Amino acid sequence: MAENSLKRIIPLADQRPTALAVPAAALAPSSRIHPSGLLSDTRQRPLRDLRISVTDRCNFRCSYCMPKEVFHKDYPYLPHAALLSFEEITRLTQQFVAHGVQKIRLTGGEPLLRRNLEILIQQLAALRTPDGRPLDLTLTTNGALLERKAQALKDAGLRRLTISLDSLSDTVFRAMNDVDFPVQEVLAGIAAAQRVGFSAIKINMVVKRGVNDDQIVAMARHFRGSGLVLRFIEYMDVGSSNGWRMDDVLPSSELIARLQAEMPLLRLPSNSPGETAQRWGYATADGRHDPQAGEIGVISSVTQAFCGDCNRARLSTEGQLYLCLFAQQGHDLRSLLRGGASDADLASAIGHIWGARDDHYSELRSALRAADAPARARPEMSYIGG
Ligand code: SAM
Ligand code: SF4
Ligand code: SF4
């Protein structure tokens, strides 16, 4: 048999790790944890932010996230029955909210590929925090389907949007999404989101040295004064497939220095504890922040660890709770859901899992790399949710 046909018929090992079972203590009457809104982990970090991956599929193949060589047409994506249903997601989210979650981000994969997503948004938009406030409900998208879907997302109750855009150059953009998708269509999606009245739109640009770092200044100029907040993200070593090297990372300090050479910037205070982005405002000639020109953000996930106040949990497409973007395993909440657990069981499980959390990978990254620790197999970002 020819080598090529052999390659095609060998079944791919499923790279998703097995899930951790929910600790038995969570379900024992004597050690139940009831939601109080005051949950904290072993490092005294509260749980405030939940990122929910609604699909592990995507219509792009960004090399830093879902490289084509790994995510090819025979890749074993999750079957539909493995995905949490909208009712399951909403039921779990209710318990997270009872524990103090205030912000929900829908992500993926590409969340706009999940059919009838507006129904989930409606359900989540109807939830209230224990003191009666609506959730801060947002979604991260590559923008490819946004022009078509912006109105329906707004009508369903989505409050904010983050759109990923790595370049304004059509050539660079098509190469980075690796499916030859034109940048104009994402720009049309952004315009549609503005037109239908999304007020807080963020633009995420992952910066890879030598690939799109020559686009930084053009991106800043384009979005300056637009009311949209451009955020530059350091290329991260998430997952196991992107072949990450420190040399490919453009440290935020260098990025800010490059921008400063073209347009004056000044540091702005953070909006809230646990905020991932460091804020920089465009400055006037006399050195004050110019609110008309707006601001940018830098997310220095690699060069300046921000684990100290990390209040984010991630719910994978198939209902595993991940306590860190770099965790090797998740905790299996789907088995509980599908095994007849009550709301109190679900809440207690979340309480026990978060209460035992000690994750702080970004603070350990340099030490692990300096010690030449063997690379750990980790689930992909498209699966656990970016
Ligand atoms: N498909 C949607 C999108 O691209 O916006 C949502 C999912 S994507 C995994 C969420 C965010 O993670 C995107 O802004 C993407 O650029 C970012 N991302 C993916 N891989 C990354 C990496 N290796 N380093 C830094 N950011 C990454
Ligand atoms: Fe898809 Fe988003 Fe990953 Fe790009 S970053 S491959 S758009 S999930
Ligand atoms: Fe949070 Fe983990 Fe990222 Fe640290 S490395 S900021 S704990 S997600």
Distance between the termini: 41 Å
Distinct small-molecule ligands in the complex? S-adenosylmethionine, iron/sulfur cluster
Say what the CATH topology is.
TIM Barrel
Strand portion, in percent? 15-25%
Tally of helical segments: 12
Report the top-level CATH class.
Alpha Beta
Gyration radius (Cα, Å) is 21 Å
Proportion of residues in helical segments:
25-40%
Describe the structure.
- With 386 residues, the chain is α/β, with parallel strands linked by helices.
- The protein has one domain: Alpha-Beta Barrel (TIM Barrel), CATH 3.20.20.
- Helix content is 28%, strand content 15%.
- It is built from twelve helices and twelve strands.
- It has a twelve-stranded mixed beta sheet.
- Strand 10 (312-315) and strand 11 (320-322) form a beta hairpin.
- Helix 3 packs parallel to helix 4 (146-156).
- The longest helix has 13 residues, at 86-98.
- The chain starts with a helix and ends with a helix.
- The model is unreliable at 1-13 (pLDDT under 50).
- Residues 58, 64-65, 107-108, 110, 140-142, 164, 204, 206, 233, 235-236, 238, 242, 381-382, 386 line the site of S-adenosylmethionine (SAM).
Would you spell out the secondary-structure blueprint of this structure?
Blueprint: H1 3-9, E1 49-53, H2 86-98, E2 103-107, H3 117-125, E3 136-141, H4 146-156, E4 160-164, H5 170-177, H6 183-195, E5 200-207, H7 216-223, E6 229-234, H8 252-260, E7 265-268, E8 278-282, E9 295-299, E10 312-315, E11 320-322, E12 331-332, H9 334-338, H10 343-355, H11 361-370, H12 381-384
Parallel strand pairs: 1-2, 1-10, 2-3, 3-4, 4-5, 5-6, 6-9
Antiparallel strand pairs: 7-8, 8-9, 10-11, 11-12
Helix pairs in contact: 2-3, 2-10, 3-4, 4-6
The site of one iron/sulfur cluster has 11 residues, from helix 11.
